[in-house]
Amino acid sequence: MTGAEAPFFVSDANNTCEKEDAMRSAIPKTGAWYAELALAAAVAASTATVAQAQEDFQARSWAASCAGCHGTEGRSQGAIPPLAGRPKDEILRAMLDFKADRRSASVMHQHAKGYSDNQLERMAEYFSKQKK
Amino acid sequence: MSMIRREFVKLFGYGAAVSAAALSGCAVPEATRTKARVVVIGGGWGGTTAAKYIRMWAPEIEVTLVERNPFFTSCPISNWVIGGLMSLAEATRSYEGLSRRHGVRLVQDEAVEVDPVNRRVRLAKGETLSYDRLIVGPGIDFMYETLPGLNNAAAQARVLHAWKAGPQTEGLRKQLEAMRDGGVYAIHIPLAPYRCPPGPYERATLVANYFKKRKPKSKVLILDANPDIVSKKGLFEAAWNDLYKGMIEYRPNSELVDVDAKTLTARLQFDNVKADVLNVSPPQTSDRIAHQAGLVTANQRWCEINWLTMESVAQKNIHVIGDSTLSAPAMPKSGHMANQHGKLCADAVIALLTGRPVNPEPMIANTCYSLVSDTEAMHVASVHRYDPAQKTLVPVEGAGGVSKARNTLEKAITESWSRNIWDDMLG
To answer: What is the pLDDT of residues B350-402, one digit of tens each?
Structure first.
């Protein structure tokens, strides 16, 4: 099998700095920083319904792993079915059925089993919102 | 402390808890400019995808793509051309969509020198590009120095690899068309890891399919340096036995020592094999720009990276994607995988440039289709998640697998896959 060669060492240094800088720049450097953060969280939560679709970068990135077969944002040509704009429940039910082997497939059961139910739900939500 | 982190994470839209490592001490933040600039070297499966997705997800970031070829030719599916089932034109696409639809600046040129300290790339025609982040998806190069008889232009023009699509694809097809009935097509497969694990077996199969129709006395000889078929073994063996009995000979442990290009002889350790058409990939390595830029860290061939960001472990601000990476466990060097790398990288680079946390839970997947007759195909699939303990992407247990058997539906799926993924990269 192809796989990696010898024992695999990866330095964490490159990732840590940028991540930490990003977080530092977002955290106000005052004694009441937690209070400010909590306030901001409350504001964000109240606009969560509107903001969530744009801000679920993680679901967007997971959903991008489907685009190789299903097309960018789930817009497909040919035999592979599209995902863009389909009802969330429909996509989620299909994926959970594939995952549990309740529905036969050539390959989708093999992919569905790779994601948690929570991931699948958020990915279904993402695709349901994409333009057909 | 954990409650604060949860609130913070909610703001940034991530469901998972952020790793403790992210909050350890660090250095000065990156200098900000009006518009962040990303340069992408390589218009292949990884580079095009990364360029498009950065523009799609963060149009405030400028992206320049450097590619030496005037248009894109797909190496996946090119075996169908070699087998006479498709024209190369059908596997060719323009790069224009990237500029017209996504505002990528396209530069047809070759990167000759990367300056990681000053963050500049010098191109062959003289232009110098500055970058905040560099993404390198340069693909592979061949270690011709390991096969002295093949280490010159004349020999390489006669013994083709066709492991990069384009003139080599058509050249190999022409050699097969010109071959006498009763001749032998020999393909050598280098030791893994190499680009596209099932590729050479698909090629051997589709050449046998062509011979069966047009030159039925001819034979296919697979000289595999590996100890066994590297991908979809059961499925390939079944196809050979059912459809091409007596036509394909498979020889494992057949490492190539040298090649005589004049006589088309493959010199193995204990044997010389003469062919009518000889098709050789020498052992593979990262493209030369990766070596020049100081990105190659493993076995003098491959580039180690951080799998959360695809950033090189050796050079800051340079990300490596596709075949030239040191593969994660059970991760194939495939075009589909490079396309996945491109998106993982795009997301991470955007996060790093715009000051949001990098996704701590990337997920990528691969499906690789092989055609084995005019009508039937089969696949291998895998899903990969990040394992924080091993600090790499690992296959998700219980996910992935292969086709139960070759079938006609999967041929249609392969055709659909190729249209969708080429559009995903270039449209």
So the answer is: 999 999 999 999 999 999 999 999 999 999 999 999 999 999 999 999 999 99
B416–A contact, CB cutoff 8 A? yes
B234 at interface of A, judged by CB pairs closer than 8 A: no
Mean pLDDT of B313-329: 98
Q: How far does A91 lie from chain B, in Å, by closest CA?
A: 18
Global pTM exceeds 0.95: no
Here the ipTM equals: 0.90
* Structural domain boundaries, residue B257: 144-280
Task: Find the closest chain B residue to A38 by CA distance.
Answer: B7
**Beta strand pairing call for B72-73 and B184-189:** unpaired
Mean local confidence (pLDDT), B244-255: 98
User: What angle is formed at CA B74 by the lines to CA B73 and CA B77, rounded to 5 degrees?
Assistant: 140
* Percent of all residues in chain B with a pLDDT value above 70, rounded to a whole number: 92
Superfamily of domain A52-132: Cytochrome c-like domain (1.10.760.10)
Tokens 């001819």 correspond to B218
Confidence at residue A54, expressed as pLDDT on a 0 to 100 scale? 59
Residue of B231, B401, B416 lying closest to A79 (CB–CB): B416
User: Does one domain contain both B136 and B158?
Assistant: no
Average pLDDT over residues A66-87: 98
Residue extents of the structural domains in chain A? 11-46, 52-132
> Of how many residues is chain B composed?
427
- Looking at B90-203, which runs of residues are DSSP E strands? 92-93, 105-108, 111-115, 120-123, 128-130, 133-136, 140-142, 184-189
Pairwise CB contact (< 8 Å): B361 & A58? yes
| Residue B406 placed within a domain | no
pLDDT of residue B97: 98
